[in-house]
Design a protein that fits this description.
The chain has 664 residues and is mainly β.
């Protein structure tokens, strides 16, 4: 890496007319010990989290014209932008004997490039340190799109639900898993991960019932979690017209029947469709109907009053919704007077009443696959008396249902029973129709929960390789499912290291909405085979075993050593054997890095910068971690030391040699 530098040329008047510049034989050079160069010696181009200190300090070095360090100068460190939360401390540092000034840099709160300038006080010398700030840990979650939408019941909302996860400075955070859930209907997918913009999204399919519905986005322990989205499920397109009440009444000719005629317009999910015109048309028998046309109300209901024709006998009438369907009503004109019919009529009728009959479910909550809810239908007439001999047909919303119809007509108590089981979780709406045309107004709901967990299996993270003492790249995970293969959330899984030593972080986990439980990390132990188990109680497949191979850890460069120290020599005499420097790990083993440039600088015996001159090739690249300096020689007598550094390995400290003497 090429260091950042700033050089200064000192120009003085010359006695003859000539061009003035930074070269030429008439140039007045700076005196020894005067600063002409400042380098970003160490700590440049680091990366860290916004608002946090960088892992290593920043170090500037000041040199004179001969490349010797200059001590005792004040270096001023200053942020280039007014970054919220950014700081450099101390802001002024005096260079030491090696010409070094060190400061700690805390990054500001903005993601991206940041910079600090280091300048020599009262001198036109400066150097810039740069760093890259990534977002800090996730702090909060908030809605970013898709709230307060409307769509027909049972259909997808036009826009996705979107949340954004941010750190404490508002920067987006990538890679955060968000769990989604819905009060009715579904979300797809149930788990999504934030991208570089910190956003995660899901599609929302509304439930079958009209009205308000909600969905949630949840990330444990974040501020704002859960994020609640509200939506409105509107009726879908009209699908069928149903007879509700008023059919098969009896009444005197030329008189209005006691009970109104009522129909209901519904969509595919059975929700009432409002605002559609219903035409009432007398078919046979004469008579009249009021109104001739009317709109369905918010529940999809429309009603009319029917006055029979002048003659005794059969009368018929049709309720018509254009493009949807027709419901036929019949009535009998009798000279003996009124009385309700099979459509819920009054006046002593024994026919079923839609409003007085009932539908119940017990229990109201069952597990998928194994649970059974008994559906009880009680048919009553307008007076509340039970109706015997009525035929009952059941229907249920949703999919995966097994609906057992009543074995026969209602008994003397007006009761008929059926049963519901289902393989698909969700809320099931149960409706009942009596005698093929009378739909009971009351409905029942059965909540079907996910079937119990039955199987645990390996999801990902098996058969990996990593250096001993380091974590595997893919965090081990298992998946818990039921007998249908559906994921089971909320199941506790415990991970434990069983071979090789090492450690696991986040050993106790609970499955998410996808049935996944994942450790936070698995750090391998000694070189060779390592193993981790995921234990899930009595589930089939437990324990799940993960295998990994730990390779010997690669040596890490830690410091320099003089393999061959400089010996005593005479002026201008080559060191023999030549000075040799190596890169070693913490245990002193040579780290076989090649191409690393190591630089040798001459120091006084007390470690201060030297006025003596060191000739020869002072910069040599390593071969397998070793740099040999074959032609070093010192011109001036005295007691000295050598210092070895490398701008390619800025985090390694300088290494000072043993003292040696140069004689004349």
């Amino acid at each position: 890496m090429v260091p950042l530098r700033f050089f200064r040329c000192l120009v003085a008047p010359i006695l003859v007319s000539a061009a003035v510049g930074c070269g030429g034989s008439d140039l007045v050079l700076p005196s020894d010990g005067e600063p002409v160069q400042i380098d970003a010696f160490r700590g440049n181009e680091q990366s860290g989290s916004a608002g946090s200190p960088l892992p290593a300090p920043i170090v500037a070095q000041v040199l004179d014209e001969a490349g010797r360090p200059v001590a005792g100068l004040d270096i001023v460190f200053q942020l280039t932008d007014d970054q919220v939360g950014g700081d450099v401390s101390p802001d002024t540092v005096r260079t030491d004997a090696a010409g070094l000034a060190t400061a700690s840099w805390t990054l500001g709160g903005t993601v991206g490039a940041q910079a600090v300038d280091a300048r020599v006080r009262d001198e036109p010398l400066s150097v810039r340190f740069t760093a890259s700030a990534a977002s800090s840990g996730a702090r909060r979650i908030l809605a970013a799109g898709g709230n307060e939408q409307s769509a027909p019941a049972g259909t997808a909302l036009p826009e996705s639900l979107v949340v954004e996860v941010a750190d404490r400075f508002g920067n987006p955070v990538e890679g955060v898993a968000v769990s989604w859930s819905a009060s009715a209907g579904e979300v797809r997918p149930e788990s999504s991960t934030t991208g570089p913009d910190g956003r995660a999204a899901t599609s929302r399919i509304l439930g079958a019932e009209t009205g308000g519905q909600t969905a949630e986005a949840r990330v444990a322990e974040l501020e704002g979690s859960p994020v609640v989205f509200t939506h409105t499920a509107t009726p879908g397109s009209a699908a069928r017209l149903q007879l509700v009440s008023g059919n098969e009444q009896n009444g005197p000719p030329n008189e209005e029947l006691e009970e109104a005629l009522v129909v209901r317009l519904v969509d595919e999910s059975g929700n009432g469709t409002p605002g559609r015109a219903v035409s009432w048309i007398v078919a046979t028998g004469g008579g009249s109907v009021t109104p001739a046309t009317g709109d369905t109300d918010e529940e999809g209901l429309a009603s009319a009053r029917w006055t029979l024709g002048p003659s005794a006998g059969s009368n018929t009438l049709n309720a018509v919704v254009s493009g949807v369907g027709v419901v036929a009503f019949s009535a009998t004109g009798s000279s003996g007077g009124g009385g309700g019919g099979g459509g819920g009529g009054g006046g002593g009728s024994t026919g079923p009443s839609p409003s007085r009959s009932s539908v119940t479910a017990d229990p109201a909550s069952i597990p998928a696959l194994t649970g059974i809810s008994t559906i009880t239908v009680t048919v009553r007439d307008a007076s509340g008396a039970p109706v015997a001999g009525a035929t009952v047909a059941l229907s249920a919303s949703g999919s995966g249902n097994t609906l057992t119809q009543p074995a026969g007509p209602t008994g003397s108590d007006g009761v008929a029973t059926g049963a519901l089981s289902s393989s698909v979780p969700g809320t099931k709406l149960i409706t009942a129709t009596v005698n093929g045309s009378v739909r009971i107004e009351q409905t029942a709901q059965v909540s079907v929960s996910v079937a119990p967990a039955s199987l645990v299996e390996l999801h990902e993270g098996d058969d990996q390789t990593a250096a001993a003492g380091s974590a595997v790249a893919i965090r081990p995970a298992v998946r818990v499912t039921n007998a249908l293969g559906l994921p089971v959330a909320g199941f506790r899984v415990t991970f434990a290291v069983t071979a090789g030593g090492g450690s696991v972080s986040g050993a106790s986990q609970t499955t998410n909405s996808d049935g996944i439980a994942r450790v936070e990390s698995w750090t391998l132990g000694s070189p060779g085979p390592n193993a981790l188990e995921a234990q899930a109680g009595s589930l089939s497949g437990s324990p799940v075993v993960f295998q990994a191979t730990a390779s010997p850890a690669a040596p890490q460069a830690h410091h320099f050593v003089f393999l061959v120290q400089p010996g005593d020599v005479e002026e201008d005499e080559l060191f023999s054997p030549p000075v040799t420097v190596a890169i070693v790990d913490a245990a002193g083993n040579v780290v076989g890095l090649s191409g690393i440039e190591i630089e040798i600088v001459l120091l006084e015996d007390d470690g201060r910068g030297s006025s003596g001159r060191l000739d020869g090739n002072r910069k040599v690249a390593t071969v397998d971690g070793v740099a040999v300096f074959p032609d070093l020689q010192v011109e001036d007598e005295g007691d000295y030391r050598l210092r070895a550094t490398s701008k390619d390995l800025r985090d390694l400290p300088p290494e000072i040699s043993e003292s040696f003497e140069v004689s004349d």
